[in-house]
What does this fold into?
Amino acid sequence: MEFTPKWEYVSDMVMGGVSIGEIRTENIRGRIGTRLTGDVSLDNNGGFLQMAFDLLPDSQILNAESWTGIELDVIGNLKKYDCRLRTDLLARPWQSYRTSLVAPKHWTLIQLPFAEFRPHRTTIPLDLTRIRRIGVLAIGREFNADVAVSSVRLFR
It folds into this structure.
């Protein structure tokens, strides 16, 4: 199952942080992708830049229980990023299910099995019948972010 992401940009400025970045859709080494760039700062209790999208329109939930995980075509600067999932069962913006990936220098298909996603600031187990949103984050340390995604799919 392939998605047509309508990526949205969010930074730690929503909570008083000072990280600065942006997302752009552009041609990167022969592929059209959405690129998250910027500088992550830990000042003012900040520390993240994010691009995310709802998997289905109108915040509908997706039943992904017959799938193994998420796969993304990714390129970047060899830095570590988070991939996070949200379900409609999570009430707070800081709650999610997360795993990490390293953004390679060349376009690469990265598979992230659902079994690798760990609850973050929640005790609610990941319910694959209730997935709503996915995000790619530069988070947790000061660094220059540069990661792009050309496609997002579920895989079996």
Q: What stands out?
A: The longest strand covers residues 143-155. The CA atoms of residues 59 and 132 lie 6 Å apart. The two ends are 9 Å apart (CA to CA).
